[in-house]
Specification:
- The complex is a heterodimer of chains A (452) and B (255).
- Chain A is of the alpha/beta class.
- In chain A, 48% of the residues lie in helices and 10% in strands.
- In chain A, the strands form 5 sheets. In chain A, strands 7-6-5-12 form a 4-stranded parallel beta sheet, with helices on one face. A 4-stranded parallel beta sheet of chain A has the order 8-9-10-11, with helices on one face.
- Chain B has a single domain, classed as Ethanolamine ammonia-lyase light chain (EutC) (Rossmann fold), CATH 3.40.50.11240.
- Classes of the chains: A alpha/beta (452), B alpha/beta (255).
- The interface between A and B is large, with 64 and 53 residues.
Chain lengths: 452, 255
């Protein structure tokens, strides 16, 4: 296939799909770091012009990483649903963008189409979309998942309550948990990033959340975001594991750098399902992703970071997860340099995940070495709410004192719910309207929780 | 007095955690005083990221404040390929390799442990915490009979550079003490990374990490004790990384 375009008698040639996708991507520091970004603004647009004329079918014919070399590629090809793809298989990438924006592409149609879409097709079309396109199409797609709460219903916005503490101190964690619950946070999950990744403290933290959950009859699910092998070990020792967490990436090699493979994810998913702890449903995997993770492990195979990210969603999709979120600005300025890059990346990730059929949330966030601040987060937050994001994070004052980065606060979620008329998950909304929050807010409850 | 609508949170949980709980609010929004406090903390963290580590002065402090001579350890200052902060931030791989002059100073001596100290994202973190941690760790190492390579102080360094250094020194194990990303509540958090059989191509999955070492976080005494446990276990199991977990293999050491 000839991938080239001439502008003012200069011909821009692209050597294969990988190069074409990378050069069509909006400017970002991670692709520049990898040496795959377009060399000029005009070359970028030339790549987009060529990409717009590329048949979607091209991605079925040319894997970006050889099938034999990479288990994520094998997963993508082995699970590709050809009958579902038939709906759009005659389209070019540009034609696909137009179709997605049209009235033909309803939420119901997109749900049927999802298993027919390979991540590379989804990444490709996102590269031709403006911010408003990313919002408009994502908004059509409703992805609903259930464990004890029902997350992702239209008109709802959930939050992960993230009560992290630098030393895993039960009192500090309990205080953050109570503060968040009283401000309506925690209906997607109460999830703690442990300061130390060991079996004993993972078990203790799971028990702490479970005590609060059962004592105050809170309809939600818990998670301690240790390495998946640590969670498995805790599970074997009888710890109350609801959701199983893992960071994932879009290539086998990048996943290996996280110390995981697809077999381990499958094993963990089956072990946790066997516990039968869900009451509303049995989605229980919780995955986190983020553009740049493959490159940071030197495992990107020359693929741009946004396409790698969507390949991670193909991994997530294989396990019917409860929650998936992109931790968009966590990785740092070498991958997403500033507020502008973080904003677009967050909306791309949400759109691509939803189109793949995933229950997408977003950790709207940045680190102190990036050129970004809370104003940038307010913009992304408001756009994601409009796009129908399933959940965002709830961190006390937006300041995570353990992971040392800034995310969104309990108040940010209240702002978004109020501005856009969104409500919490129905089970959690009923709990908020009952008598339990008053009991939880009574004096000395936090001390009681921490002591138990 | 005009009622501005600001309400104090009840119950007030501020005494129970350093997290920003129980914020004063007006409507659903955070009150002015709290917003300004957040902006000040962000400004301090931004300034900490861009502060420089004076490696020569820090090397002198190491020699003056720790009994290094007794353990036969010298101190070397090194630089990475990242010449300045901007290239350090935009090109992580430059912070993982040594500049052209540095490697000539490193000779293979087949030691048990190579300790590196690097600025990372907060020079303040290592200036405050590295020496107190080593004061707790060095006697333990001596007791266990670990031989030390030279202690290297690295400017514009990332975690991976300690494995490149450890490999050159022929060390069985490398330990990196490095400034972590400054947060709003603490700009002085230090991380400690341990690699068995350090090599330049090691990844995060091959390392064990203790994070948030600082006054008010993980204290240096506990960190030294946990590091020593990890190192002893690493020596017994001949590995670090996801295969080595705290609290799971006590029997190996007790036996």
């Amino acid at each position: 296939m000839l991938l080239r375009h001439t502008i003012n008698s200069v011909t821009y040639r692209f050597d294969g799909l990988k190069e074409l996708l990378a050069k069509a991507t909006a400017a970002r520091s991670g692709d520049e770091l990898a040496g795959v970004a377009a060399k000029s603004a005009v070359e970028r647009v030339a790549a987009r012009i060529v990409l717009a004329d590329l048949p979607l079918r091209a991605f079925v014919e040319e894997p970006l990483v050889p099938y034999a070399e990479d288990e994520v590629t094998r997963l993508i090809f082995d699970r590709h649903d050809a009958p579902a793809f038939a709906l759009v298989s005659h389209l070019t990438v540009g034609g696909f963008r137009d179709w997605l924006l049209s009235d033909h592409a309803t939420g119901a149609t997109l749900r049927v189409l999802a298993p027919g879409l390979m991540p590379e097709m989804v990444a490709a079309v996102s590269k031709l979309m403006r911010v408003q396109d990313l919002v408009a199409v994502a908004r059509k797609i409703e992805v609903v998942t259930r464990f004890r709460t029902t997350v992702g219903l239209r008109g709802r916005l959930s939050t992960r309550l993230q009560p992290n503490h630098p030393t895993d101190d039960p009192l500090g964690i309990a205080a953050a948990m109570v503060d968040g619950l009283l401000l309506g946070s925690g209906d997607a999950v109460i999830g703690i990033n442990p300061a130390s990744d060991d079996v004993a403290s993972t078990g203790r933290l799971l028990q702490l959340i479970d005590t609060v959950r059962t004592r105050y009859a809170i309809p939600t699910q818990s998670c301690v975001l240790a390495h998946i092998t640590t969670q498995m070990a805790a599970m074997k020792q009888g710890a109350p594991v609801d959701l199983v967490f893992q960071s994932i990436a879009g290539t086998e090699k990048a996943n290996a750098s996280f110390g995981i493979n697809l077999g381990m994810l499958k094993e963990a998913n089956e072990a946790a399902r066997a516990l039968k702890r869900g009451t509303a449903g049995e989605n229980l995997m919780y995955f986190e992703t983020g553009q740049g993770s493959a490159l940071s492990a030197n495992a990107h195979h020359g693929i741009d970071q946004q396409t790698c990210e969507v390949r991670a969603y193909a991994v997530a999709r294989a396990f019917d997860p409860m929650l998936v979120n992109t931790v968009v600005g966590f990785i740092g300025p070498e991958y997403l340099y500033d507020g502008k890059q973080i904003l677009r990346a967050g909306l791309e990730d949400h759109f691509c995940g939803k189109l793949m059929g995933l229950p997408m949330g977003c950790d709207v966030c940045y680190t102190n070495h990036a050129e970004a601040d809370q104003d940038d987060m307010d913009s992304l937050l408001t756009l994601l709410g409009t796009a129908g994001v399933n959940y965002i994070m709830g961190v006390p004052g937006a300041d995570d004192i353990m992971l040392q980065y800034q995310s969104t606060s309990f108040q940010d979620a209240l702002y978004l719910r109020e501005m856009l008329g969104l409500r919490p998950a129905p089970e959690f909304e009923a709990w908020l309207a009952g008598d339990m929050p008053r009991k939880l807010g009574a004096p000395m409850q936090v001390q009681g929780i921490a002591a138990s | 007095m005009t009622d501005t609508g600001v309400k104090r949170a009840t119950p007030n949980l501020r005494s129970l955690t350093a997290a920003r709980v129980s914020l004063s609010m007006s409507g659903h929004s955070i009150a002015t005083s709290e917003v300004l406090e957040f902006q000040l903390a962000h400004a301090q963290a931004r300034d900490a990221v861009h502060a420089a580590l004076d490696t020569e002065a820090f090397a002198r402090r190491l020699c003056d404040e720790l009994p290094l001579a007794r353990q036969g350890a010298e101190v070397l200052t090194l630089r990475t390929c990242a010449a300045d902060r901007v290239s350090y931030l935009r090109h992580p791989q430059m912070g993982r390799c040594l500049d052209e002059e540095s490697p000539t100073e490193l000779k293979s001596i087949s030691c048990d442990l190579a300790i590196s100290i690097a600025d990372g994202l907060s020079a303040l973190a290592v200036e405050r915490n590295a020496i107190p941690l080593l004061a707790g760790l060095l006697p333990r190492l001596a007791e266990e009979g670990w031989t030390l390579g030279p202690i290297t102080v690295v400017q514009q360094g990332r975690v991976g550079v300690s494995d490149a250094i450890g490999e050159r020194l022929g060390a069985s194990c490398s330990l990196m003490l490095i400034g972590e990303r400054p947060g709003l509540s603490a700009a002085d958090s230090m991380g400690a990374y341990l690699t068995w059989e350090p090599r330049a191509d090691r990844t995060d999955a091959d390392r064990n990490c203790l994070s948030n070492i600082r006054d008010g976080g993980l204290n240096v005494e506990t960190a030294a004790e946990r590091l020593m446990w990890l190192m002893k276990t690493a020596r017994t199991m001949k590995l670090t990384g996801v295969g080595l977990k705290e609290g799971t293999v006590n029997s190996l050491l007790d036996g």
